[in-house]
Design goal:
Helix content is 43%, strand content 11%. With 337 residues, it is α+β, with helices and mostly antiparallel strands. InterPro entries: AlkA_N, AlkA_N_sf, Alkylbase_DNA_Glycosylase/TA, DNA_glycosylase, HhH-GPD_domain.
């Protein structure tokens, strides 16, 4: 087995466990693995799959100004080269929000007691993104009009059937790249449980990306209106899916998906909102919290996961304490998204 390792210094506050849980969303996610201290994921780097393991560790100095993420990149055969390690670092920095400064968010939360309590409870959460915009889009399509639990089962099956493999013991399946799905037929995805419409949408987008007719990653360099327009023009992509991709694929943190039923329920419950909460009410809250509506969304996701008990296998990381992470939880009472 070939491998290379490197470290990334991350300004506090940062908690890998909370960030990974916001990324994986449910404990049966087999693509993004978390054992309480280590995050594992297969990434396709230049179409060659590698296994990435990341662990938050104690810095080698007292009262650190940053925390440290230790990363190991592995594969069968020769060691990954410097270019591959650099690409893995770039992807991880985006996926785990390592370069995002949340100081303005914490100042915003100080104006609202409930928001302040939520932010403090999950202090160190960074807003995650999927490894690619294509992955975000497929996630959105898979979860349309289904519970998140069922949607992630579909995604697990998709990765198991068509995702890249590194052939190392215990390695999870990787998420399929567009070229791997472009050659499939709707019946192939139907066997996994996808509806005919969802299967057709995923394959059509995969074929456009693989052929070069569609550059989803280029949307990161456009304004939000343009990105939204392009997404809404794609087959099977409506308002909820477009906003989901804006937030989880493009990192547009002001986006609070207004048609997200789970988010609506969480907002109504946590903030004790009166009556029905619809799209316009969510949009009003997003304007009040601008440009951090998406950050509130992730915090409420964790609040639900904690109340459901899913964060029990999670580490406690005390910024500036010099203590290494443990596999114990801070004592949150576990809820549903």
């Amino acid at each position: 087995m070939g491998k290379v390792s490197f470290e990334v210094e991350v300004p506090p506050p940062f908690r890998l466990d909370l960030t990974v849980w916001a990324l994986r969303r449910r404990p049966h996610n087999t693509i993004d693995l978390w054992d309480g201290t280590t995050y594992q994921r297969v990434l396709a780097v230049d179409s060659a799959p590698v296994l990435v393991s990341a662990r938050q560790v104690r810095p080698n100095r007292p009262a650190p100004a940053s925390t440290v993420l230790r990363v190991v990149v592995s594969r069968r055969g020769a060691d990954p080269d410097e270019a591959e390690a650099t690409e893995v670092r770039r992807i991880l920095e985006a996926m785990l929000g390592l370069g995002i400064d949340l100081s303005r968010f914490y100042k915003l939360t100080a104006r609202d007691e409930r928001l302040a309590n939520l932010a403090e409870r999950f202090r160190g959460l960074r807003p995650p993104r999927f490894a690619s915009v294509f992955e975000a889009l497929v996630n959105a399509v898979a979860c349309q009009q289904l519970s998140l639990t069922v949607g992630i089962h579909l995604l697990d099956r998709l990765a198991g059937a068509f995702g890249p493999e590194v052939k190392l013991r215990g390695a999870p399946p990787g998420f399929p790249v567009p070229g791997q799905l472009a050659s499939t037929e709707p019946t192939d995805l139907r066997r996994l449980g996808f509806s005919r419409a969802k299967a057709s949408s995923i394959i059509e987008v995969a074929r456009r990306v693989a052929s070069g007719d569609l550059d989803l990653e280029a949307l990161a360099r456009t304004d939000e209106k343009t990105a939204r327009t392009v997404l809404l023009s794609l087959p099977g992509i409506g308002r909820w899916s477009a906003e989901y991709v804006l937030l989880r694929g493009l990192g547009r943190l002001g986006t609070l998906p207004g048609d997200d039923v789970g988010a609506r329920n969480s907002l109504r419950r946590y903030f004790e909102l009166p009556g029905k909460v619809g799209y316009e009410e969510i949009a009003s809250l997003a304007r009040r919290w601008w440009p951090f509506g998406g950050i509130v969304y992730f915090h409420l996701l964790l609040e639900g996961l904690a109340r459901d008990g899913h964060l029990s296998n999670s580490m406690t990381w005390r910024e500036g304490s010099g203590q290494a992470p443990s596999a114990t939880q801070r004592g949150e009472r576990p809820a549903t998204e």
